[in-house]
TrEMBL record, chain A:
Protein name: RNA polymerase sigma-70 factor (ECF subfamily)
Coiled coil: none
Boundaries of every RNA polymerase sigma factor 70 region 4 type domain copy: 129-180
Lineage of producing organism: Bacteria, Pseudomonadati, Bacteroidota, Flavobacteriia, Flavobacteriales
Record's keyword terms, sorted: DNA-binding, Sigma factor, Transcription, Transcription regulation
Database matches in NCBIfam families: sigma70-ECF
Source species, domain of life: Bacteria
InterPro entries referenced in this protein's UniProt entry, alphabetically: RNA_pol_sigma-70-like (IPR039425), RNA_pol_sigma-70_dom (IPR014284), RNA_pol_sigma70_r2 (IPR007627), RNA_pol_sigma70_r4_t2 (IPR013249), RNA_pol_sigma_r2 (IPR013325), RNA_pol_sigma_r3/r4-like (IPR013324), WH-like_DNA-bd_sf (IPR036388)
GO biological process, one term: DNA-templated transcription initiation
TrEMBL record, chain B:
Higher taxonomy: Bacteria, Pseudomonadati, Bacteroidota, Flavobacteriia, Flavobacteriales
Protein name: Glycine dehydrogenase
Length: 190, 80
């Protein structure tokens, strides 16, 4: 977070957006729209909109928070579009987000049978927590850790791609895993 | 091939185990090491938990080809 904070004071760095935020935005969106193509389009629109309105960025929030706020509007627009097409909307925003907690009547009524929604929410929280921790790794560690752990790439393929030896790779993985475990320990590894 | 090894090596084997890439012999050596090394036992425990949490999270990444396309598009837009 410190790296992000230092960089986000008033200035945006659009040429780093894809590397830094696309996985975060991707996970945020896919659980809500459940479709790869749509997710891809929404993120692309978000970045372009961000680029256009970059003068509005005051540096009060982090770059990522700012992009998420644009993305949220894009997702709502997307639901509206479906809504006008079908005459029925299936809105699946996370009510658990900081600003909208408990405002919805449905949210206050607990449904003991709605286990899947709860599981999904917990998964999402965990997913975003992991992405936050990944954010604290350096770029190379984060990329290699993701390739190995999330995308299940072969050790050999990664070594070729990054031109490193297998023992280099395991050193990088070890550092990444150690930082990740430390970062997630308090809330998720107990 | 000694049965005794340093913690550094034990940790690497432990990491490999998380990706099912440790050999049987390595696993045997690791388990012997863990009998007397509480430090590595602790690491092994948290490492296994991390693996489980990563699996449970069902996290996805944006495919690399999509990222590249997106970068190109942004780049173009920035030059306008």
């Amino acid at each position: 977070m410190t790296r992000r904070k230092a960089m986000s004071s008033e200035k945006l760095f659009p040429n780093t957006w894809v590397d830094r935020y696309s996985d975060y935005l991707y996970n945020y969106t896919i659980v809500r729209v459940n479709d790869h193509e749509v997710t891809q389009d929404l993120i692309s629109e978000t970045f372009l909109a961000g680029l256009k309105s970059k003068d509005n960025f005051k540096g009060e929030a982090s770059e990522r928070t700012w992009l998420i706020s644009i993305l949220k509007r894009k997702i709502i627009d997307h639901y509206r579009k479906i809504n006008s097409r079908k005459g029925k909307a299936e809105v699946r925003m996370s009510y658990n987000s900081d600003e909208a907690e408990g405002d919805w009547l449905e949210e206050r009524v607990s449904d003991p049978f709605d286990k899947t929604a709860e599981d999904r929410l917990e998964n999402e929280e965990l997913g975003l927590a992991i992405l936050n921790c990944l954010d604290k790794l350096n770029d190379k560690q984060a990329t290699i850790f993701k390739l190995k752990t999330i995308d299940n790439f072969d050790t050999e393929a990664i070594c070729n791609e990054f031109n490193i030896t297998a023992s280099n790779l395991w050193v990088i993985i070890h550092r990444a895993r150690k930082s990740m475990a430390e970062c997630l320990e308090e809330n998720w590894l107990n | 091939m000694s049965l005794f090894m340093k913690c550094e090596e034990a940790n690497t084997i432990c990491d490999k185990t998380q990706y099912k890439e440790a050999t049987l012999w390595e696993k045997i050596k690791l388990n012997i090491h863990l009998i007397w090394c509480s430090f590595c036992r602790k690491y092994t425990r948290s490492n296994a938990k991390l693996t489980k949490v990563m699996r449970d999270s069902d996290l996805k990444t944006m495919p690399i080809s999509d990222k590249e396309a997106l970068k190109e598009r942004l780049q173009k837009e920035m030059q306008k």
